[in-house]
Specification:
The chain is of the alpha/beta class. The protein folds into 3 domains: about 180 residues, FAD/NAD(P)-binding domain (3-Layer(bba) Sandwich); about 120 residues, FAD/NAD(P)-binding domain; about 100 residues, Enolase-like, domain 1 (2-Layer Sandwich), CATH 3.30.390. It is built from 11 helices and 26 strands. Strands 3-2-1-7-19 form a 5-stranded parallel beta sheet. Strands 9-16-10-11-12 form a 5-stranded parallel beta sheet, with helices on one face. Strands 22-23-26-25-24 form a 5-stranded antiparallel beta sheet, with helices on both faces. α1 packs parallel to α7 and α8 crosses α10. The longest helix is centred in the last third of the chain and has 15 residues.
Length: about 425
Amino acid sequence: MHHVILGAGPAGVIAAETIRKHAPADTITLVGDEAEPPYSRMAIPYLLIGNVKETGTYLRKSLTHFTDQRIEQVTGRVTAVDAKARTVTLDNGGQLSFDKLLIATGSHPVRPPIAGMDLPGVHPCWTLEDARAIMALARPGARVLQMGAGFIGCIIMEALAARGVALSVVEMGDRMVPRMMGPTAGGMIRDWCEKKGVKVFTGTKVEAIEAGSGPDSGLRVKLSNGQTVEADLVISATGVRPAIGFLKDSGITCLLGVLTDEHLQTNVSGIYAAGDCAEAFDKVSGKTIVSAIQPNAAEQARVAALNMVGQKADLKGVTQINVLDTLGLISTSFGNWEGVPGGEHAELTDQASGRHLSLQFQGDVMVGCNSVGWTEHVGVMRGLVEGQVKLGEWKDRLLHDPTKLMDAYLASAQGQGQWAGAADERRR
């Protein structure tokens, strides 16, 4: 049996190792499109800060790990999949035949249609190659402008601030982290960043990037608010999309991502998907979603790999989970944080202390929540949302006082056999 895995990120590596564990005689080929050992993109900010070297980003520390596991590594970018012929075509003209295929190609950064994106000094922050270019320019005192203040953008911003640059951030949304925070919470994060010395422009677009007039004059960035910002480095962090363009005309069903069932199998038998490119069922919203976070990618890879070797395994569902540290300010978002039609919500905001808590309910179940500067019982918040715990009378108590999360969890989840996690949280 030949298993081909497209993508050498966390999902691809975990799947390959899981297959090897349960099918020691099978052939495994791991295809990656970068000339680097498999590494974690989530470690790149730590590389920028200087907390780790490049080897610290590697997913497996032994350089012989994949050889020892008898996992063949192939470098190339996949350009097409022929589901009927069971073949994969690479950009170097090579072809791979497969019995089982896992699509774990992750995401790629969105390139905004802005004049000047090809100028020297303009970079995404997605690969080790990008990180090397950024580190060469983002020296103490350098003028850096970052486009995008979403989840990934805020992580990059943290690393840039640690390098001592003069940082400006431009976000086209009306607030920071608009896909995980409402107006109040997003505004609080913006205010915090500005107090930390970061210039933040919300509700603003970059209209053009131009080269300066002199050889050492850097870049001139024109904004939609009429201002022009001088920069030595421009970083594009305007979002990511599933890297699935090569699946056009393959016969594999794709929506936002590669559509999968509870076994992570696509509409084509023997072809699976996992990680940031996969669209799987979200048990809270009742819809299929792309949940681009590493814990979900790891579990999807494990479930897909087991099914690829004939061991039936089901994905229990995915949930939107975000915990963010922005220059020392912790914010969280779980599930349907925006609420649902006909639902109820409770909100508590203390602007003076920089704390905000929002809970969303459907019936007596908390279906989503988010917080800023509120680190108490984050595990309980996640447990209530993911566990779909029926709160009964505690729903009304939380509407009156949202801070009673621990009491509500212990009283409600214990009777439903879901309270072990809350007990662990209480001991912390």
